[in-house]
Design brief:
Layout: H1 34-40, H2 55-62, E1 64-67, E2 70-73, H3 83-89, E3 96-101, H4 107-121, E4 125-130, H5 133-148, H6 151-154, E5 163-164, E6 167-169, E7 175-180, H7 184-187, E8 194-198, H8 217-223, E9 233-238, H9 246-254, E10 257-264, E11 271-272, E12 279-281, H10 288-294, E13 297-300, E14 307-308, H11 310-318, E15 321-323, E16 325-327, E17 333-335, E18 344-349, H12 359-371, H13 373-382, H14 397-401, E19 411-412, E20 416-426, E21 429-439, E22 444-454, H15 457-466, E23 469-471, E24 477-478, E25 482-486, H16 499-515, E26 524-529, E27 538-545, E28 552-562, H17 564-575, E29 579-582, E30 585-588, E31 594-596, H18 602-608, E32 611-615, E33 621-625, H19 631-642, H20 651-663, H21 684-694
Parallel strand pairs: 3-9, 3-18, 4-7, 4-8, 8-9, 10-18, 19-23, 20-25, 22-31, 25-26, 26-28
Antiparallel strand pairs: 1-2, 5-6, 6-7, 10-11, 10-15, 12-13, 13-14, 16-17, 20-21, 21-22, 23-24, 27-28, 29-30, 32-33
């Protein structure tokens, strides 16, 4: 018996003998389910390399695309620029890949190939995000259609119901959720090892509703990957948009490497990165229709100078390869040696590398952008695959005063098709500008012929419906074709109602007179500036209530909401169009100019330049007032909106009819601007009935 005070060495104690079954009692094998066996299996080995198969080789072996009720096999040879971005995405060190491609150059198919490869070879949860719910539904249809024609993936579906518009579930543990940028529930729910953000440049700044804003959609997608620190992968793919554009910023500031595609000249064999400066047009053709119809565009080799047609361009692209580079602090792309273990990489591919697109279509789009500001953005974002910077260089008043013609105020230049008028309303009166519009090779050149100040709405009515202006070099006079008055404003002089309500009532009275045949229909319209940028330059709405009192407006009032931002950019673009002076006379070197009458004052020029486009700290650009008064800038914007092609019926459509009637000696009035070009009734009985109703 051992005393309680005795010390015992634990190390001297013998270890207990635990019962251990003999080896013969172990099971000879462990049984796995089909899903476990597929999930735990090693990556497929590529016989050509002896290593794990890469997405590009996997796509060549397994990928099928549904086509007209059948299927076609994915062929890498049709898209020589597709394999490397897919294999780059699969590198162990890479976490994010950015595809900045022009439209329709297989960037979405690259994302599908990577997603399907992951589902088959490295299963895990995935998310495929689009800009809105409609695009999400289309993406889901494309994904499900591809899975149905691919035996390697359709065999992993336990039942057909596992592939829906909400996503796909596979037996091996892989899943794919389809989401959209405005849905918080979709973006912030389940974790995701692999994420794909399609057309990210079209994502809103914030996800959720206006009342409940969350982080940006891309940040929410990244948060879903936090559980997969060492295996997560994000692919952002999009053609760029207006600055600030998310994919362009990712390419420039967040990518470790920025790749560009280098082609090989089929004549001299010199490698080069294509650009649009070497796209030339034969015979110096300027008509986009002729360029496309006769296939006049060529690419001039930067080394030997030989011209490539579409066939030779395709041969050059088929022999091309991706080269590594990076952006310096000045935004210039420079070649660098590829990194050993990059974390993120970007790929830039303009449309002239697309073997399915003709060089002539690209050249035609560039010509259209040179002469039309609305199509310039299309060319830069959809062909050059670069973000569109609406850079408006500050102008000086001298640049406006130098555009004064020899015509005095009140005289329309020869060739004027129509006159438009913009009116800015204030409690102290009404500022106005009248512009004449003359056709040129592409659109219209505009001439300011008059500006001034009016005291009452009665004076405005006389200006719009009774004033006439002589045409240079003839005895012909023209009235105003279309006028727009601003319906915004504060309290009127009486203080019992707002300026907006006063103008609404006045416009309704004008409309009643027009319906009675006393005034031309459709000549005067109410407008308001959009509080934020909108897709269309002009949107038409019907107002059925007064803004201040809430009183109903029987029958409603037609109101045009204009995107003032776009029209201010167009104004500065017109001011930047090139001129040449011959014997002291200004001659337009480019189309769609803007000129001013000889009596235009320096004060008018200052008000026209009262705002400048400046970039805020958040990257957005906004018009900032640099002078106290901007009334004539507003009147010019309103007059330009009246002649814009989005104002229906547009002046461009009506111009041939106007010239035809004028050539025949027929008086022109504003019934051409009215819907349906309704004839103006002019009977004494109608006048008497309206006069008695007023009494």
């Amino acid at each position: 018996m051992i005393s309680a005070n005795a010390s015992v060495s634990l190390s001297s104690r013998p270890l207990p003998v635990l019962p251990f079954p003999p080896p013969s009692s172990f099971p000879r094998s462990i049984r796995f389910t089909d899903g476990e066996r597929h999930a735990l299996r090693p990556r497929e080995i590529d016989p050509a390399t002896g290593e794990a198969i890469l997405p590009s080789r996997w796509a060549e072996k397994y990928r099928y695309i549904p086509y007209r009720g059948d299927r076609i096999h994915w062929e890498t040879s049709r898209s020589p620029y597709a394999p490397f971005p897919m294999d780059y995405w699969a590198r162990p060190s890479v976490r994010e890949v950015y595809l900045v491609f022009a439209p329709q150059i297989v960037k979405t198919e690259i994302a599908f190939n990577c997603a399907f490869f992951a589902a088959h070879q490295a299963p895990g949860p995935m998310i495929f995000a689009t800009a809105d719910e409609d695009l999400a539904g289309r993406a889901a249809n494309r994904i499900n259609g591809s899975i149905r024609v691919m035996p390697c993936l359709s065999g992993l579906l336990a039942r057909p119901e596992d592939a829906t518009k909400a996503g796909v579930k596979f037996k091996n543990g892989a899943s794919l959720t389809v989401a959209w940028a405005t849905s918080l529930a979709k973006l912030a729910s389940d974790p995701a090892e692999y994420a794909f953000a399609d057309e990210a440049s079209k994502y809103p700044d914030y996800s959720g509703s206006a009342e409940k804003k969350e982080a940006s959609p891309l940040d929410l997608i990244r948060q879903r990957q936090n559980s997969y620190t060492y295996s997560k992968k994000l692919m952002v793919l999009s053609s760029p948009g207006a600055a600030p554009c998310i994919v362009s910023r990712l390419q420039r500031y967040e990518a470790d490497e920025a790749y560009r595609y280098e082609v090989v000249c089929p004549i001299c064999g010199v490698s080069q990165i294509m650009d649009d400066e070497h796209i030339i047009v034969l015979r110096s053709a300027r008509d986009p229709r002729v360029v496309k119809r006769e296939k006049l565009a060529r690419y001039a080799c930067a080394s030997c100078g030989m011209y490539w047609d579409d066939y030779l361009r395709n041969r050059a692209v088929m022999s091309g390869r991706w080269v590594c580079g990076a952006f310096n602090k000045d935004g210039e792309w420079l070649r660098i040696e590829a990194l050993y273990n990059p974390v993120s990489g970007a790929f830039h591919l303009p449309s002239w590398n697309n073997i399915a697109m003709s060089l002539s279509d690209i050249a035609a789009a560039r010509l259209q952008g040179d002469d039309d500001l609305t199509k310039k953005m299309v060319y830069i974002t959809q062909h050059k695959a670069e973000e569109y910077n609406e850079i408006v260089n500050p102008k000086k008043t001298s640049q406006i005063l130098d555009r004064r013609t020899r015509l005095p105020a009140g005289i329309a230049p020869a060739g004027t098709v129509a006159l438009t008028c913009g009116i800015d309303a204030h409690t102290w009166g009404y500022r106005f500008s009248v512009y004449a519009w003359c056709e040129d090779a592409i659109g219209f050149t505009c001439h300011k012929i008059l500006n001034g100040h009016l005291g009452t709405l009665a004076d405005v009515e006389k200006l719009v419906f009774e004033s006439r202006y002589q045409v240079e070099g003839s005895s012909e006079t023209l009235g105003i074709f279309r006028a727009a008055i601003d319906t915004g404003g504060g309290k009127n002089n009486e203080g019992d109602k707002t300026m907006t309500e006063e103008i609404y009532n006045w416009l309704r009275n004008i409309g009643e007179k027009a319906n009675a045949g006393l005034l031309p229909n459709g000549r005067l319209c109410g407008i308001k500036g959009a509080s934020q940028r909108q897709d269309a330059r002009i949107k038409t709405t019907i107002v059925d209530k007064m803004p201040h009192s809430g009183k109903p407006i029987p029958g409603g009032l037609e109101l045009h909401t204009i995107d003032t931002h776009q029209f201010k950019v167009m104004l500065h673009w017109r001011l930047s169009r090139k001129l040449k002076i011959i014997d002291g006379i200004m001659e337009p070197e480019e189309t769609q100019q803007i000129f001013f009458d000889a009596d235009t004052s320096e004060k008018y020029a200052e008000e026209l330049l009262a705002e400048e486009l400046r970039r805020k700290l958040n990257g957005h650009v906004e018009w900032t007032r640099v002078h106290t008064a901007n009334h004539y800038l507003d009147t010019t914007v309103y007059a330009m909106a009246c002649a814009d092609g989005e104002w229906q019926p547009s002046l461009k459509i009506l111009a041939p009819r106007i010239k035809e009637l004028r050539a025949g000696g027929t008086a022109i009035n504003s019934r051409l601007a009215a819907r349906g070009n309704r004839e103006r009734p002019d009977t004494q009985s109608i006048r008497e009935r309206f006069a008695s109703r007023e009494r």
